[in-house]
Amino acid sequence: MIMALEAGRLLHLLGMYLRVRAQFTEAERYLLQALSLCEQREEPTDVAANLHELAFLYYDQGQYQQAQPYYQRALTLCEQIYGPEHPRVANTLNDIGVLYHTMGNVAEAAAYYQRALNIRQRTLAADHPDLAESFNNLGYIYYIQNNMAEAETLFLQALSLQEQSLGSQHPYLAMTLTNLAVLYLKQQRYRPETTEIQRVRTTPVASKDYSGTRFGARLS
Predict the structure, then answer these.
(1) Mean pLDDT of 30-34
(2) 24-40 vs 2-20: helix axis angle to the nearest 10?
(3) How many whole angstroms separate alpha carbon 5 and alpha carbon 42?
(4) Residues 50-55: contacts with CB within 8 Å, 24+ apart?
(5) Domain segments of the chain: what residues?
(6) What is the CATH number of domain 1-82?
(7) What is the mean pLDDT of residues 79-94?
(8) What is the four-CA torsion angle of 131, 137, 140, 142, rounded to 10 degrees?
(9) Residues 218, 173: contact at Cβ < 8 Å?
C-alpha cells in the first residue's frame, strides 16, 4: 500500500512538472494514473491534489468545459476533508471563479469570488496576500459591470494590502497598479504623470504563475 501511495505521488509530481513545461499529453497521462492510484488507496488529500492539477492542466489548454468537473469534484472533496470554512476551500472557490470568469460567465464568477473572499476574511490574517487576490478579482467584476467606484475601492484595498504584506516593489503589485491605471483611463482621469502609471513602469512584472490559476485578474 505504501509503495502504491508513493508511486501515485511520484506520478503526480511528474505530471505537474510536465504541465509546467507545456507537455500536456504526457502530463495528462501521468496525472490520470496518479488519480486512479490515489482513488484506489482512498487517500482523499492526494485525490484532491490530483483533481486540482488535472483542472489546471485543462484550463492551461483552454479546455474549460473539461476542467469544470475536476474543479467541482476537488471543491466537494476539500469541503469534506477540511470543512467548508478553510483557506484551501477558498482557494478552490477562487479557482472556479477564475474558470467561470474566463468562460464569460460573470455572474457565476462573482458568486465564487465572493464566497472565497468571505472565507478568507474569516480565516486569514488581515494582511494576507490572498485577500488582495480576492479584492482584485472582485474589482475586475465590478469593472466589467461598469461599477467604477466599487472597482476602484477594491483595487485600492488590494494595493494597500500588497504593499503591507509584499513590499512596494513586489512584481504582483504591477497587476493591481495596471488595473487602477486602466480604470482611471476609462474614467478619463489618466495623465502620464499619474502615480499609478509611473509605478507600473518601474515595478517588476511577475512571470506566469504555473502553480495554478489563482492570482488575480488584470484589466486590458
Answers:
(1) 96
(2) 160
(3) 10
(4) 50/8, 50/12, 51/77, 52/92, 52/95, 52/212, 53/12, 53/15, 53/16, 53/19, 54/28, 55/95, 55/99
(5) 1-82, 97-220
(6) 1.25.40.10
(7) 96
(8) -70
(9) no
Q: What is the pTM of this model?
A: 0.84
User: Which ranges constitute the DSSP H helices of 41-190?
Assistant: 44-60, 64-82, 87-103, 106-123, 129-144, 148-166, 172-186
**CB contact burial 84-97 (16+ within 10 A = b; e otherwise):** eeebbbbbbbbbbb
Task: Write the DSSP assignment of 64-87 as a string of letters.
Answer: HHHHHHHHHHHHHHHHHHH-SSSH
pLDDT in tens, 12-25: 999 999 999 999 99
Residue 129, φ and ψ in degrees, nearest 5: -60, -25
Average pLDDT over residues 126-138: 94
Q: 97-220 belongs to which CATH class?
A: mainly alpha
> For the chain, what's the residue count?
220
Closest CA to 205 of 173, 179, 182: 173
Inter-axis angle of helices 87-103 and 44-60, to 10 degrees? 20
* Common-topology check for domains 1-82 and 97-220: yes
